[in-house]
């Protein structure tokens, strides 16, 4: 099931995406009653997808991200895979949605794309045992861990480099019925392929990461876990269109603009 968060005529809601571009009339949203973090009903009120504005599929209290979870990506930046998952946080204010602009930060001159599989948490949880991980996951979406690489190198810690406004595009929707263990991940810039990998290349699986993270902190419904990026990260410039495509989910597209 694909669950999207959307806005229409000033109203915000959730809906189930039905159909695709090949469907007669195109995909539609069946608006749901309530929200996807509890039992919900479809209203039967359907709206063409192209008549709504898609929003970030969730508004997380926090985004917990994992660095250097793909060996080839760690190597391309001159790093080794750490002995334990390398965690950092992106604030909720970093989140932006599909089609929204990414504002190039004024304090950086080297901004990179990082295509990632994002895990959306469905219920409050902590100290989750491995066998219960699937029970706390609502689904999966596409993410781009936009990074000010020069600032990351200079400041050593990653708060400004990875936490600036619009540095965490998410979308276009949440796919709830997906096996995350071996999915293709691709990033293009202006239609040219930059990254191509598979989630099977992750050093720590989704289960590993959720167990490790929840040993330290409580995750809330709507929180997001970014699982790392494959090799091929590279620069973005003002005017670029960057797209993250994940097998079984869809494509998240954003354009880079000058920060006003």
From TrEMBL:
The keyword Metal-binding applies. Residues 62-256 form the Fumarylacetoacetase-like C-terminal domain. GO terms for molecular function: acetylpyruvate hydrolase activity; isomerase activity; metal ion binding. Residues 1-57 form the Rv2993c-like N-terminal domain. Keywords: Isomerase, Metal-binding. It holds the Pfam family Rv2993c-like_N. InterPro entries: Fumarylacetoacetase-like_C, Fumarylacetoacetase_C_sf, Rv2993c-like_N. Transmembrane segments: none annotated. The keyword Isomerase applies. GO terms for biological process: carboxylic acid metabolic process. This is 2-hydroxyhepta-2,4-diene-1,7-dioate isomerase. The lineage of its organism: Bacteria, Bacillati, Actinomycetota, Actinomycetes, Kitasatosporales.
